[in-house]
Structure formats: structure tokens, C-alpha cells
Amino acid sequence: MLVTFITGNEHKVKEARDIFEKFGIEVNHENPGYPEVQGSIEEVAAYGAKYVAEKLQKPIIVDDTGLFIRALNGFPGTYSSYVQETLTNKGIIKLLKDEQDRYAEFRSCIGYCAPKCEPKTFLGTVAGEILSEERGNNGFAYDPLFYVKEYNKTFGELTTGEKDECSHRRKSMEKFAKWYSEQWTFTSKTLLYYLKQKIGKTFF
Ligand code: ITT
């Protein structure tokens, strides 16, 4: 099975390849870009997936991710990309200075769409805390800030394998992979059935 992953983020591609490997799904990476509409991450992923599927005339997936900090009413959320580039992790640390409530969630939404079809979305979340300093050099972007209790480490301190065990992206991609595998099995079975019917009628 093959899936085309549309993203400008190489880290996401690497994570996707590791996660999908277990499902026998190969990842083809392309980066044509797509407009990010205002709205929830589900709306961004659904719109992006539909836009690219029609543009490239093939089935594709996109991933929209956000970091939602409870003490900041969900900020940066869908503005995570802009905030990472402008405010950076240091700015987030400053915003949360003296704040007791450190709860945050990563949310990843996979949008899947095929040409002339409606998009489908698959959400994955993981809970953690925002530290008052960055820790670890693994991962990317917000990872060194995001502390996960179960591992007593930040995403920036986890190995790639450990992050893939518990991350928001692991959950959203796993939901997608299960659904996609089912579609694939159904399509192959249907195809075999019709081939058998046709060959049967022509040759027997
Ligand atoms: P594409 O939209 O092209 O896929 P992007 O990096 O802009 O790539 P998002 O909009 O989904 O992706 O991500 C919003 C921000 O959150 C951005 O700065 C990412 O680098 C960051 N981010 C996404 N996934 C992350 C993760 O697993 N760990 C830490 N930061 C992450």
C-alpha cells in the first residue's frame, strides 16, 4: 500500500514512515503547499486534503498539528506554526512565567481525500505539561518544551521510537492506517470478485 503525504515538514515525513511501516504502508512525500483556512485543525486538514487531492488528481493525506495550552485558552492552537516562527519556545516560556497550570495538549489531525470525494479526518491527541525551560535535542519545534509524565521526559528527550509510541501523530496516523487498510482490503476483494465474474463469463 502506498500513501502520498503532503507536507513541508521533513520531521513529519520521518515520523510518518516509522509509524506507517508497521501497517505495511509506504510513504511518498510531496510538497505542493495548500491554503490553510481559519478554523479548527479538523477544518484545516479537511480543506487542505480536498484542495490537494483535486489539484494533483490523486488520493493524498495532510497533517495539521497544534499545541493547545490550557492556561492560554488553547493558544497557540491553529496558530502554532506562526507562533513557533515568531514568538518561539522562549516566548511561550515567558508567557507562562508565574503560571501554575502547565497543562497542554498536542493535537494532530490527518486529512485524507481522493479526487471527487469528500475528505475524512482522523484526530490524535496527547496530554503533557509545558516546562519552564527547554530540555532535550531530539524531535523538533515545541518538542523540548513538552513534558510527558509517563516517560518523565520531554518529547525533546525521547528517542524517535519512544515519541512514536505515544505521540499525537502516532494516534492520528494509526487511526488513518487502520481505516485505509480496511478500504484497501475491501477494494482488492471487490476487484477480485469482478475479475472472477468477468473471466468466468469470457473463458468458461
Ligand atoms: P505542514 O503544514 O507543511 O505539514 P508545518 O510544520 O507548518 O508543516 P503544522 O502547521 O501542522 O506543520 O504545525 C504547526 C507547528 O507545530 C509547526 O511549527 C510545527 O513545526 C509544530 N509541530 C508540529 N508537529 C509537532 C510535533 O510533533 N512536535 C513539536 N512541534 C510540532
Word description of this protein:
By secondary structure, the chain is of the alpha+beta class. It has one domain: Maf protein. The chain contains 6 helices and 8 strands, in the order E-H-E-H-E-E-H-H-E-E-E-E-H-H. Strands 1, 2, 3, 4, 5, 6, 7 and 8 form an 8-stranded mixed beta sheet that branches. Strand 3 and strand 4 (76-77) form a beta hairpin. Helix 1 (10-21) packs across helix 6 and helix 5 (160-166) crosses helix 6. The model has no long low-confidence stretch (mean pLDDT 95). The structure holds inosine 5'-triphosphate (ITT). The site of inosine 5'-triphosphate (ITT) has 17 residues, from strand 3 and helix 3.
Give short descriptive properties of this protein.
single chain; 204 residues; alpha+beta; Maf protein; 42% helix; elongated; binds inosine 5'-triphosphate
Number of helices: 6
Q: How many structural domains can be distinguished in the coordinates?
A: 1
What string gives the helices and strands in order?
EHEHEEHHEEEEHH
Q: How is the CATH topology named? A: Maf protein
Mean pLDDT: 95
Distance between the termini: 32 Å
What percentage of residues falls in helices of 4 or more residues?
40-55%
Radius of gyration: 20 Å
Oligomer: single chain
Described by strand count, sense and barrel closure, the largest sheet is: 8 strands, mixed
Strand content: 15-25%
β-strand number: 8
List segments where confidence is low: pLDDT < 50 over at least 5 consecutive residues: none
What is the CATH C level class, in words?
Answer: Alpha Beta
Structural class: alpha+beta
What shape does the CA trace take?
A: elongated
Tell me what the CATH architecture is. Answer: Alpha-Beta Complex
Bound ligands: inosine 5'-triphosphate
